[in-house]
Amino acid sequence: MKYLLVILWLLIFTKLFVFWVWLWQLKEYHWGRFKAHFETQLLRKLFFSVHGARYPKLTKKILAILFSGIVFEITFLFLIFGSRYYLLYLLLSLLIVMDIASVIVLLFQIPASIYIKSILKKAKKKRKEFENLTVIGIAGSYGKTAVKEFLYEILSAKFNVLKTKKHINAEIGIAQTILKELNFSHNILIVEIGAYEKGKIRQVCDIVKPKMGILTGINEQHLSTFGSQENINKAKNEILECSEIKIDYNNLDLIATNVVTEREFISFKINGTNFKVNLLGRHNIDNILLAVSCALKLGMTLEEIARACLRIKPEQGAMKLIRKDSLTILDASYSANFNGVIADLDYLNTYQGRKIIVMPCLIELGSASKEVHKKIGDKIDQVCDFAIITTKDYFKEIKQERKNIVLIEDPAKIVSFLKSVDQGTVLLEGRVPNKLKNEII
User: Fold this and answer.
1) Among candidate residues 94, 98, 67, the one with its CA nearest the CA of residue 5
2) Could you give the residue ranges of the DSSP H alpha helices within 335-390?
3) DSSP per position, 17-38
4) Structural domain count of the chain
């Protein structure tokens, strides 16, 4: 009986330990983001891992942390196995798995921090060798990746351009891009810069030395880690403070006129020049204007820019259109923020027939969470015939009294429902479960 209890303990402890390590990795080992996980539904989130497996991406650091967890388990069992209170110790240890995992993770952050500092120092040193390199930094709450992708396509028509990869916007990833990919054939480096606290954008700018800074839209995203909207505004504006040439979403001198929104492209004019871009939704125009403004300042003509815009693909605007039999799927599952959700719902509204959205609640919105989710619920009610919310956090704020908005956390049940839909349009918004995407798309 004793051995059976120990085996059961090993299974439960390991599963819980792996979950918390996964969460730390998901939150990029950032204490503020990890803490934000417990803004609501605390007890439910503490035991969430019992109901669903979550596995971290296997890196050298994660493997070392998991190995340390195994060492802890073996040592712990060795110490308590002969005790008459071993059962009590086993139970107590299960209550503090999060603390044990967090201590191990944070201990590994010490050498990781030293390593990161050395990488940043090397990147800064290498950057100094490229005196003629034009660096463009992009920061903001939303739209950063889209602007980066649009700008890369436009500028690549005339220059040799290097950009940070789609999912890279932290200082270590930016530094590694410089160290591994930057060479003297590059004229321009485009850097997307993310931040969860004040000073991070400035830190990256100290390394890359941007000549041009682009500030996209700002909203409540990551309010829980910044602490206030004022802090968000100050942090994002660091990109402009650190740049010679400033391009601000709120102070653009370009306007799109004669806008026509078709199902699979948008067309418009800028200062009399015709533009056609294969993007889904009118909201992409603001990000195109930011990219156009930057390209103009680098010496390209509007005609050159308009031709280059024809190379932009729909998925670079964070939404991809997929047709499956009589069902149209709009895949906007890269990430989600309030403005993006509203814009995607506006685009969904251009379709005829049954309209369905599948999305999780948004995270790290702090004190703005309830109000933001109420607004999302109102918009869903205006546009959609049916909505499936995949996480419980702010479901009641989205749902309110509406019968066409339901909570389904099990991906298999969502897949089963969507496969039963004969006709219509489904919007996959935000980070929906991979199992759902793999089955539906």
Assistant:
1) 94
2) 338-348, 369-383
3) HHHHHHHHHHTTT-HHHHHHTT
4) 3
Spans in the chain with pLDDT lower than 70: 38-53
CA distances 61 to 49, 107, 117, 148, 342, Å, are 22, 11, 16, 29, 38
Residue pair 171/115 in contact by the 8 Å Cβ criterion: no
355 in Cβ contact with 427 (< 8 Å)? yes
Please list the alpha-helical segments (H only) found in 237-362: 238-241, 284-297, 302-309, 338-348
* DSSP three-state, residue 203: helix
Residue 301 DSSP symbol: -
Cα three-residue angle 264-338-150, rounded to 5 degrees? 45
**Residue 236's closest CA among 198, 209, 270?**
198
d(CA 372, CA 73): 43
| Dihedral sign (CA 53, 57, 63, 68) | negative
Q: Which is it for strands 327-332 and 161-163: parallel, antiparallel or unpaired? A: unpaired
In this predicted structure, what is the pLDDT of residue 364? 80
Beta pairing partners, 188: 134, 161
Residue-number span of the structural domain to which 9 is assigned: 2-116
Asked whether residue 123 is domain-assigned, the answer is: no
Residues 312 and 326 in one domain: no
Kindly report, residue by residue over 154-170, the tens digit of the pLDDT. 999 999 999 999 788 99
Instruction: Identify whether the C-beta of residue 323 lies closer than 8 Å to the C-beta of residue 358.
Output: no
Q: Under 8 Å CB-to-CB from 224, ≥6 apart: which residues?
A: 32, 35, 36, 39, 364, 365, 366
Does one domain contain both 179 and 298? yes
- What does the pLDDT read at residue 40? 52
- The DSSP letter of residue 276 is E
Which residue in 1, 20, 3, 2 sits closest to 72, CA to CA? 20
Residues 178 and 295 in one domain: yes
Q: Considering 300, 316, 332, which residue would you say is the last residue of a domain?
A: 316
Q: Cα angle at 364 between 358 and 367, to 5 degrees?
A: 110
